[in-house]
Amino acid sequence: MKLTTDIEDTIDTIRDKIYEEIKDMTVSEEVAYFNIIAEEAKNKYGFRVVQSAVKDAVGTIHSTSSP
What does the buried/exposed string (b/e) look like for 3-40 if buried means 16 or more CB atoms within 10 Å of the residue's CB? Predict the structure, then answer.
């Protein structure tokens, strides 16, 4: 009986590949690596970058709460 699905195997393969690519990078190199991938995906698929709703909510909570 197989305990994983094909998609899980694919995801594991992708994770292993990424790990091998970034394992010796500094934190700033990792950030740059993922930013490049995100920018490529944004351009390829036409994603829009919007300000974080969570960030907005936290800012609103902190600015309107009283001590």
Answer: eeeeeeeeeeeeeeeeeeeeeeeeeeeeeeeeeeeeee
The per-residue pLDDT for range 8-34, each reduced to its tens digit, is 999 999 999 999 999 999 999 999 999
What per-residue confidence (pLDDT) applies to 5?
83
DSSP 28-47: HHHHHHHHHHHHHHHHHHT-
Residue matched to tokens 């829009």:
48
Q: Where are the alpha helices (DSSP H) in 1-67?
A: 6-22, 27-45, 53-64
